[in-house]
Specification:
single chain, Rossmann fold, six-stranded parallel sheet, 302 residues, 13 strands, 48% helix, seven-stranded mixed sheet, elongated, alpha/beta
């Protein structure tokens, strides 16, 4: 009887040990949110696609993409607060502006939420930033403008710039690079006009530029580029349009000659690498070092 009791006890102890090992071996699950500036641009869907791919490969991520319907600081702050309230372990953020969200990020960090920037950073320390070298990409766009103006035999004239707003770090840097490329080349660069990323607003601005006699227009993001191309299309004039980002609408405008080129980023890389880095930090495999990774840009023409 004693022998039977000891065997039974041994079996129970082993069962408990194996159970404990199984529990400890189970991968920890993490809640990770992607918060972009808005839901308007196909570009953000590219970041989401990269995040989904990484989440599927890792298998221990509860991932969600959320964003305001339009670019708005207050709405993006609300999204950050909601993510924290819903138990976020990490937030991948494309900041609408460099300063507006810092208080919300500070509160998130106080609750041990890891912050990773994708596309556009805020002025607040983060685990890492995955983004295009936007100033360099803007300079590339400026060189494409110069190349196409020279090809058309246009040696002087006014050039307009359409961007999102005066605060978004990524598009501000693109404008800076574009202006640097055109500086001293004999063209007059007009004051930048802002459309909040809305293609309809951008079209109205571009139409006004064309009325002013602009020989070229640069659209610094997807909505700005689509509006620029549509305005050139409707005007019937030979204005050089250079865009930024990629979408079905931009591809069509390039195919039909209403935009000469667009700067295409790698949003899926931003999302994929950003989410993987978040999990690596959460599991203690790597330390948060604030690294900035240039995910590259390509020039796409007809």
């Amino acid at each position: 009887m004693k022998k039977l009791f000891r065997c039974t006890l041994l079996v129970l102890v082993l069962a408990l040990c194996f159970s404990a090992v199984s529990i400890n071996a189970a991968p920890q699950s993490f809640k990770i949110f992607l918060i972009t500036m808005d839901q308007m641009d196909q570009y953000w869907a590219g970041i989401d696609q990269g995040c989904k791919k990484a989440a599927a490969e890792l298998g221990n991520v509860d991932y969600k993409w959320t964003a305001p319907d339009v670019k708005d600081d207050a709405k993006q702050i609300e999204m950050i607060n909601n993510a924290v309230a819903n138990g976020a372990n990490a937030i991948l953020l494309a900041a609408n502006g460099p300063d507006a969200v810092t208080s919300a990020l500070k509160e998130a960090q106080a609750k041990k939420v890891q912050i990773i920037y994708v596309d556009s950073p805020a002025k607040f320390p983060a685990v890492a930033t995955y983004a295009t070298n936007n100033e360099g990409a803007g300079k590339t766009a400026g060189n494409e403008m110069l190349k196409n103006l020279a090809k058309a035999g246009i040696k002087k004239g006014k050039i307009g710039i359409i961007s999102v707003n005066a605060a978004t770090a990524s598009t501000v840097a693109r404008e800076k690079g574009f202006r640097a490329a055109l500086r001293g080349k004999g063209y007059t660069l007009l004051a930048t006009q802002y459309c909040d990323g809305d293609a309809a607003k951008a079209k109205d601005i571009a139409t006004n530029y064309i009325t002013q006699g602009c020989v070229g227009i640069f659209g610094a993001n997807e909505g700005s580029a689509v509006g620029t191309g549509n305005a050139i299309k409707e005007s019937g004039q030979s204005v050089i349009g250079i865009g930024f980002d990629s979408s079905d609408a931009i591809k069509s405008l390039i195919k039909n000659g209403f935009l000469k080129a667009t700067m295409v980023q790698n949003p899926s890389v931003m999302g994929y690498e950003g989410l993987k880095t978040a999990v690596s930090v959460l599991t203690g495999k790597v330390k948060a070092d604030g690294k900035v990774v240039d995910t590259g840009v390509s020039v796409v023409t007809k």
